[in-house]
Amino acid sequence: MAAVFAGFLLIGLALPVLPLHLHQQLGFGPFAVGLVTGSQFVASMLSRIGAGNYADGRGGKRAVVVGLIAAVLAGFIYLGSLALLDRPVASASALFAGRAVLGASESFIITGGVAWGLSLAGGQTPERS
Q: Cα(60)–Cα(71) distance, rounded to whole angstroms?
């Protein structure tokens, strides 16, 4: 649970700052802000089945670790976007890609966390009377 909590805490930290950065520093309007912000949620939805298959095949713990590593990668992509501030479209594109990677990492973290928790709880067959 601590890994899932830490993962989602880090995922949520950038959300309040991102629209302000896109609008005030890069000069984009509401449509672009929504597009970049929404890319995380679309990527999360599209990657959920793959994350479930990965967790089922290789284990929940491993899926969580993959998700956390992907979240770190997304953070590096975010940092890379700062090097492109003089080119707003390139910077926003990097943020779009970073959000997409973050969405996929979210799928692996939550799906792997649930699978990991279920495997730790163990399956019990109900007794028949």
A: 16
